[in-house]
User: What shape does this take?
Amino acid sequence: MKDLEGKHIVFFDGDCGVCNFWVQWILERDTKDRFMFASLQSEFGQQFLSERGLKTTDFNTMYLWKPGRYYLIKSKAVLKIADLLGGIYRLSVIGKLIPAFLSNTIYDMISRNRMKLANQKCYLPDQHQKKKFIQV
Assistant: This one.
């Protein structure tokens, strides 16, 4: 198993074009090497869900996990990722002013329609980026 010390793990739907687009987007901006990735369908992703009593067949939610500390879901995960990326993305802190029920409603609406929003092209990470994937 890869060293997860100090990392944030992004769990995503490995079969979703929108999710894969955002994984690629994060990879390209992760200049401080803070993130690793695993699909929810992978053995690692399934173990993460099972250990927390979460549905192992529902892949509509992105999770951000800081091992030994916390995990965040939906809009809270997205806002934390932006904050960790730093720079201009820290402005996402404004999103915390929106009540979670409202931001998660928007998140859920996008999630329900995500298969229609992006083509299902396969993303191929480069050699450095491949090291950031736990399992897909």
